[in-house]
């Protein structure tokens, strides 16, 4: 009945038994590999939603309580900014890695007081209110991390917003001493007032190696396209003066010039335009009959008549923004807040956030040599287009100019879009104001019309003339 003795009851069982051993071995090996992949994946891709609650704020310790760092005279100096730097040559994108939120992580260095070997501070003003506001806003944002090992971008707590208030060499030495400096790689500096007399360079004069620069007043010669970020010069009036939004349309004046200390050649040309066009152009200057101070800074005069500034800007369709000693002017922010279309005459000026903002929709840029033709050029713009530009100008201010927080977070978003281009904001998201969409209309018993709106992702009810967002 059985074919052979080698197929005894013990013999045939050897083959299945060997297969079982191999099967167990391969299963164990596969399990180890699978567990390793799962552990690696969890470490790499697990959403780091649990952040430390620590935030960077001045209130955590006054400037006087910050550690004192004495700079030896032999401290190393960074190299001057490398004009050839681009994101693929001077920025380590691999530090940013992958995260499910597509957000770069930003680390702010702890506050320190730097002095030279004689005990003299590197800054005459210390930490300005504006820079403290900017750092505090970043520390409150989704970009912030207090874990230096997770950071993609590093921001020094050294205030270089105003070059006039710092010592160039000593500030550069302080930067080089930062523990993660690494020749400025992945570091970001904010500067709004670059250069100094007599040349007034259009970029920060502090040697900074490969650091990115968010600068106010870049020219085409100093701006590293796709690397630096051109930012506005913040106007302190944004926090002190509230200008209610005004409906677009014709204004009392067609063109208004309100800047003081304009170069005499430009002033002479504006006066000639005033003579030719009369009341259509209002040419203001500082008030010589008022005592100097904060109050006089908010006044402008024309032939003895005093006007409130920046309120007077709302009375004009177009407002002139001329270059001064520096290309970037705080007047641009004042003009946008007023909903006045800026007429920019500053050759080679890189407009703020021009990497993402379409300035043709909110301003008129005229070469300086064509100042004499300004009135004719502006008269050729259709009324409907002027109204759209007025509306866009005001929205640019509300979204990107109205605070140090808005300026700082817009800068980080632009850098974020470069690093995560697949999740970047679109042209429309950057440039189109939020739209209130009417999708339902009902009539009340008293005859008034009640509208239901969808506004920026929220529902709201307009009863009479008032809009109640979230009211339904």
Automatic annotation (TrEMBL):
Keywords: Coiled coil, Membrane, Transmembrane, Transmembrane helix. Residues 256-283 form a coiled coil. This is Exostosin-2. InterPro entries: Exostosin, Exostosin_GT47. Belongs to the glycosyltransferase 47 family. The chain crosses the membrane at residues 24-46. Residues 101-381 form the Exostosin GT47 domain. It comes from the Eukaryota. Pfam families: Exostosin_GT47.
